[in-house]
Amino acid sequence: MEYIQTEKKSIFNILILAIFASIEIIFCFTPLGSIPIGPGIVATLAHIPVIISAFLLKKKYSLIMGGIMGLCSFIWWSTIGLASPTSFAFTPFSEFGNFYSIIICFIPRLLIPFFTSVTFDFLKRKINISVSAGISAAFSTFLHSVMVLGMIYLFFHKNTNVSELLGKNFLNFVILWAGVNSIIEIITAGFVAAMVIKPLKSLKSDKI
Questions:
Q1: Range of the structural domain that residue 126 is part of
Q2: How many structural domains comprise the chain?
Q3: Which residues contact 54 (CB under 8 A, 6 or more apart)?
Q4: Which DSSP letter does residue 34 get?
Q5: I need a surface site. Which of 60, 76, 93, 134 has the fewest CB within 10 A?
Q6: pLDDT classification of 192: cutoffs 50, 70, 90
Q7: pTM (2 decimals)?
């Protein structure tokens, strides 16, 4: 009986992983995953499937989701987004990209589900589950933004080619370019997570 229950949980995790991976790919490569804010500023929804997976799946499966997000982002910036002046931050195939671009593209994405699950596991014992999910999602999105922006500044602020491309004040550009995006993404993540956590948890309880 215990073996059957373990197998059911494993199948559930793989099935949910496949569903969320499909959503991630759709969000990454179609307009459905983008929120246009203004000229040259687009907030992404690509972090949402990764965050939700952290609520439902075992940590190793949600880590895979983070890797899928990183891979999708890498492919997008290396192909569709390669002409963008900011592609240097996420792909070494950009004119001014390098090895650090790969680190920026993957490491923060891999850590999203970790931050989400750790924060959620802590908060859900103390406050309402929906509030816990909303705070966890917003917090992990905030940390993701801080890591991406921090790494871009750390690895590229002394690069004269990048500075000339983006303007004299590199730090101001990073804050202006990503600050608005980050705020929208943080709010969106918190709202969506708070709304879907109870129905999804109920579905999980019914299935396994």
A1: 1-206
A2: 1
A3: 62, 65, 112, 113, 114, 116, 117, 120, 136, 140
A4: E
A5: 60
A6: very high
A7: 0.87
